[in-house]
Design goal:
Layout (H helix, E strand, L loop, with lengths): L2 H21 L1 E2 L2 E2 L4 E2 L3 E4 L5 E4 L6 E4 L1 H9 L6 E4 L4 H5 L8 E2 L8 H5 L5 E5 L5 H9 L4 E4 L4 H14 L3 H22 L9 E5 L7 E2 L4 H8 L3 E2 L7 E2 L3 H7 L3 E5 L6 H8 L4 H4 L3 E4 L10 H12 L6
Parallel strand pairs: 6-7, 6-9, 7-8, 9-10, 11-13, 11-15, 15-16
Antiparallel strand pairs: 1-4, 2-3, 4-5, 12-14
Helix pairs in contact: 1-6, 1-7, 6-7, 7-12
Length: 313
């Protein structure tokens, strides 16, 4: 990734956060305690205004990234139900025993949502959910649909969702902290030459060990951390063959902790001609940090340390 491209990422991050803030409409807001005293209107990723009479008290979160944001904004007490992808957060957070597991989003009906009496549903802005979203809104349920795809749009989502649930100040503080940490990494990786950027192979645990191509969050993180994804010209996700990995000869291998493969398994499978094997540079990463949530900064910082340990001691 060129120096200009790295710099562009940083500039875009600032612009997106700023534009997200401008896009919000704040009405009758009591900024002294960040409490909502009147109506709220916020644009979601459909470009649609989500209009609420006040800060929601009964939220349904249908996406683990959104659940993590809400929990990190200390608003878990407002969550009444989540989808199954969010349950790892619920099960590892105190005070969430009464949150209902609604299972998979694709199996949900409007009736099952209405049974929770929500005043806000947060859901992914996926085409497959469009009819479900329309039906919920036709039943009088306020719905916010988001689809953050990279680091910059994650920041905008946090600010908008934070404003929507009555946690504007906390969301702004979170975004400011994330921006500072991102900038700290980019300042050190911006001037790294292409020849000094390690070739990286990332293997995810899902679907038997998929890797990622261009246009994915994980690819962006690898490049921002000062590495080169060996499959950055490929499709978004697929299973790479052993032969193709060996041929591209990565300097560093990153594998999700959830994978059943051990580091020794990878070494035996790839063989001693691969630089990452001979250099013993195989790292395990928490897959929950490779998501469109605040944890993404942790993934960025970890990769930067693995790729350039002398810069990030």
């Amino acid at each position: 990734m060129s120096k200009k491209a790295i710099a562009a990422i940083l500039v875009v991050a600032v612009l997106v956060v700023a534009s997200a803030a401008v896009a919000m409409i704040y009405l009758n807001k009591d900024n002294s305690n960040d409490g909502i005293t009147g109506a709220i209107s916020v644009l979601d990723d459909r470009g649609k205004s989500v209009n609420l009479t006040g800060a929601p008290e009964r939220i349904i979160s249908l996406g683990s990234a959104f659940t993590e944001i809400i929990f990190d904004l200390e608003a878990k007490d407002k969550v009444v139900a989540v989808d199954k992808s969010s349950m790892w957060l619920v099960e590892n957070t105190t005070g969430t025993e009464n949150i209902t597991n609604l299972q998979g989003v694709s199996t949900l009906s409007v009736e099952s949502i209405l049974a929770q009496d929500p005043d806000l549903v947060v859901i992914w802005n996926f085409g497959m959910y469009s009819t479900f979203i329309t039906n919920m809104e036709s039943s009088g349920i306020p719905v916010a649909a988001f689809y953050p795809k990279n680091v910059t749009t994650i920041l905008g989502t946090i600010e908008r969702l934070g404003e929507m649930i009555g946690e504007k100040a906390k969301a702004q503080e979170m975004v400011s902290d994330m921006n500072a940490r991102i900038e700290a990494v980019l300042e050190k990786t911006a001037n790294i030459s292409e020849s000094d950027r390690p070739k990286v192979y990332l293997e995810l645990a899902s679907y038997g060990g998929t890797t990622v191509g261009n246009g994915t969050l994980s690819n962006d993180i690898i490049e921002m951390a000062g590495g080169v994804n060996i499959f950055n010209n490929g499709t978004k996700t697929w299973v790479a063959s052993t032969e193709s990995i060996v041929e591209k000869n990565p300097d560093i291998i990153i594998i999700e902790d959830a994978s059943t493969k051990s580091n020794d398994d990878l070494k035996a499978n790839l063989g001693s001609t691969v630089n990452a094997v001979t250099g013993d540079k195989i790292y395990r990463i928490d897959g929950t940090t490779l998501t469109t949530s605040p944890s993404v900064v942790e993934a960025l910082e970890n990769m930067a340390k693995w790729f350039h340990p002398t810069l990030f001691q």
